[in-house]
């Protein structure tokens, strides 16, 4: 069966040195609540990154 994730929110942010650690911390802490945080380069704003919050479905 295919897994479907629902996007709850997105936000473009400036990159900081600790951003990857923050995303990792949030994913490890909230995994039991079926919440996943993603980080990608912004498609609309050069030099920024997009943080996406997903609700994971099994």
Notes on the protein architecture:
The chain is an alpha+beta fold and 58 residues long. It has one domain (5-56). It has one helix at 19-30; strands at residues 5-14, 35-41, 48-56. It has a three-stranded antiparallel beta sheet. Strand 2 (35-41) and strand 3 form a beta hairpin. The longest helix has 12 residues, at 19-30. 0% of the residues are buried. The mean pLDDT is 90. This is DUF4264 domain-containing protein. InterPro entries: UCP036698.
Name a few traits of the molecule:
58 residues; 3-stranded antiparallel sheet; 1 helix; flat; UCP036698; DUF4264 domain-containing protein
The rounded distance between the terminal residues' Cα atoms is: 9 Å
**Amount of helix:** 10-25%
Q: What's the β-strand tally? A: 3
- Largest sheet, spatial ordering of strands: 1-3-2
Question: From the alpha-carbon coordinates, what is the Rg to the nearest angstrom?
Answer: 12 Å
Portion in strands: 35-45%
The shape is flat
> Helix/strand/pairing class, anyone?
alpha+beta
Overall domain count: 1
Q: Mean of residue pLDDT?
A: 90
Order of helices and strands: EHEE
């Amino acid at each position: 069966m295919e897994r479907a994730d629902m996007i709850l929110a997105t936000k473009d942010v400036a990159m900081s040195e600790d951003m990857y650690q923050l995303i990792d911390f949030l994913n490890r802490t909230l995994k039991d609540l079926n919440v996943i945080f993603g980080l990608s380069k912004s498609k609309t704003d050069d030099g920024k990154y997009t943080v996406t919050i997903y609700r994971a479905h099994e």
